[in-house]
Amino acid sequence: MKRAEFRQVLSSLDLSDRCDEQACRRKMLELLDSCPNCFSRDAYPAHFTGSAFVVSSDGARALLHHHRKLNRWLQLGGHCDGEEDVLSVAQREACEESGISGLVVASARPFDLDIHEIPAFGGEPPHRHYDVRYVLIASEGAEIRMSRESNKLRWFTPEEMKECSLDAGLRRLIQKWQALRNRLF
């Protein structure tokens, strides 16, 4: 998916009941229109990232990793590094960070849009990630393998995630997943 198609997908999302994501989409479209290198990690003060909310084959658990640099539990994902196909980025990052190959895309349309602050680290200034999030499904019995980017990697039930200190965007993503899961199962 190239920039124009990505822009069309973002524009066509029905966010009528998702006010916080409407603001994210507006800013994402502005970034797409104003920043030629918005898919590169050196685009400051903001750039796109792709994330994957990985769920078990039965939909009962989700995989989170404790991010080494940010020192908090997050969904899997990362920088686009120039790639304009954000879904492909989410798939790549999920495979690299979990060790799970063959993750199934639940929908090619984004499941969640989020903009969050990233603190300065190393030579990078503080900046914002314009994060486009997808749901990926692991096969039954998928084995996980932790990457160097994580302190921990584990499956959580919704109840266990409620006990974790999670940012508001991830909590919203989990609530949306639970609502969808309740409709399907």
Can you tell me the overall shape?
A: globular
What is the fold-level CATH name, i.e. the topology? Nucleoside Triphosphate Pyrophosphohydrolase
Number of strands: 8
Major sheet attributes: 8 strands, mixed
CATH superfamily membership:
Nucleoside Triphosphate Pyrophosphohydrolase
Helix and strand pattern: HHEEEEHEEEEHH
Strand content: 25-35%
Total domain modules: 1
Q: Gap between N and C termini, in Å?
A: 32 Å
Q: Any idea what the radius of gyration is?
A: 16 Å
CATH architecture: Alpha-Beta Complex
Unreliable residue runs: none
Q: Structural class from helices and strands?
A: alpha+beta
Q: What value does the average pLDDT take?
A: 93
Query: Helix coverage percent of residues?
Result: 25-40%
* Oligomeric state of shown chains: single chain
Plain-language structure description:
The structure is a single chain. The chain is of the alpha+beta class. It has a single domain (3-184), classed as Nucleoside Triphosphate Pyrophosphohydrolase. Helix content is 33%, strand content 27%. The protein has five helices and eight strands. The protein has helices at residues 3-12, 19-34, 86-98, 158-162, 168-184, and strands spanning 46-55, 62-67, 72-74, 76-79, 104-105, 112-118, 127-137, 150-156. Strands 1, 2, 3, 4, 5, 6, 7 and 8 form an eight-stranded mixed β-sheet that branches. A hairpin with a 6-residue loop joins strand 1 and strand 2 (62-67). Helix 1 (3-12) runs antiparallel to helix 2.
